[in-house]
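Thread amino acids onto this structure.
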């Protein structure tokens, strides 16, 4: 391959997902190649690098993009990573313990192995920098606000892609009062006005808001006090409970996957209960965000469940008829880009997300800034 490439890494606790993009202007929407490697840490990262080297004839990428979940109050745009940035990002691990450590581990390993290779952190929190102050605040003492205890919002790379893709497909309708439902193993909603984040369901951490695959979503803080004081659970056990043992898995006792629960609900009452609660929480939060927006012009579904589960979409939309949502059942079953009926007052869309493209785009822009051009050439020639 003769063209320089951008490598995008999304590092989790058990897999590393990667995508390779040609470093062209304009950046191609689809990657040259993508995949995932099972595992985490040095061995998995080396496996990714070996696969990429084989694909590119041994030529290193021009730069590496990392999806980093939390940028805190300091980072509201992509940033070229050095030791100082890495140290600051480590301080945000407690706010995103399921995600932050694995991205930072990969960054640290690459800084040690290839220090001249530009690495860019692309933050899930950055898209929500437009949230009004009233949406960011908790009703807590002001000194906690000053120490960073506030609502940040997440899934920002996905929402940023939707802000690009929806107006390209649907025109001016997407620039009105839009709610995007990112429904995957993690799940959140984002209310957009003129394609900018106006409100979102996730807050200080990726635990907040909707019920998810294994995460609880919003919960009365008194429950946490009860778990600590009455049930005598320690903090580590509560963390495990809230992040890994709750949500669809916890309620159903069966699976974190809506697809599995849909298959089982006819014979397993807890599966049906879990799905009912999942849909109810989504519908309730859509109603709240529609109130903040003053109405609703577009509802867009994305991510694994949102893109692929016609039945989950149908159940959600059936509860939103009061908002003017009318579904076209055939279009919904076909996973069409527009699934609302012609009579619907709300345009209902299905749009595949592309977080990797957004990360690659930001990284290309960052390393091609004049201050970084020399570093990029040096890394490419290494």
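Threaded sequence (382 positions):
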């Amino acid at each position: 391959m003769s063209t320089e490439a951008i490598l995008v890494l999304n590092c989790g606790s058990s897999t590393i997902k990667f995508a390779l993009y040609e470093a062209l202007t304009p950046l191609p929407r689809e990657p040259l190649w993508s995949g995932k490697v099972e595992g985490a840490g040095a061995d998995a990262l080396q496996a990714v690098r070996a696969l990429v080297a084989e694909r590119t004839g041994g030529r290193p990428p021009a730069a590496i993009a990392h999806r980093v979940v939390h940028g805190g109050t300091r980072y509201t745009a992509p940033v070229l990573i050095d030791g100082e940035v890495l140290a600051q990002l480590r301080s945000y691990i407690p706010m995103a313990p399921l995600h932050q450590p694995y991205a930072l581990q990969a960054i640290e390993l690459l800084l040690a192995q290839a220090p001249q290779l530009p690495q860019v952190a692309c933050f899930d929190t950055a898209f929500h920098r437009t949230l009004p102050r009233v949406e960011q605040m908790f009703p807590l003492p002001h000194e906690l606000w000053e120490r960073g205890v506030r609502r940040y919002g997440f899934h920002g790379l996905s929402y940023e892609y939707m802000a690009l893709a929806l107006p390209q497909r649907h025109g001016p309708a997407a620039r009105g009062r839009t709610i995007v439902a990112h429904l995957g193993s993690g799940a959140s909603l984002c209310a957009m006005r003129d394609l900018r984040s106006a409100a979102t369901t996730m807050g200080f951490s990726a635990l907040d808001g909707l019920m998810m695959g294994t995460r609880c979503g919003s919960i009365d803080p008194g429950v946490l006090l009860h778990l600590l004081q009455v049930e005598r659970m320690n903090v580590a056990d509560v963390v495990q409970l809230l992040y890994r043992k709750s949500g669809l898995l916890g309620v159903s006792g069966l699976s974190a996957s809506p697809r599995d629960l849909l298959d089982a609900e006819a014979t397993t009452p807890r599966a049906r209960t879990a799905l009912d609660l999942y849909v109810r929480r989504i519908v309730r939060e859509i109603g709240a965000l529609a109130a903040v927006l003053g109405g609703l012009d577009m509802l867009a579904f994305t991510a694994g469940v949102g893109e692929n589960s016609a039945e989950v979409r149908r159940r959600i939309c059936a509860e939103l008829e009061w908002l003017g949502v009318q579904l076209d059942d055939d279009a919904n079953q076909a996973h069409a880009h527009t699934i609302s009926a012609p009579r619907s007052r709300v345009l209902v869309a299905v749009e595949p997300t592309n977080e990797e493209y957004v990360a690659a785009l930001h990284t290309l822009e960052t390393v091609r800034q004049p201050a970084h051009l020399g570093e990029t050439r040096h890394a490419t020639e290494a």
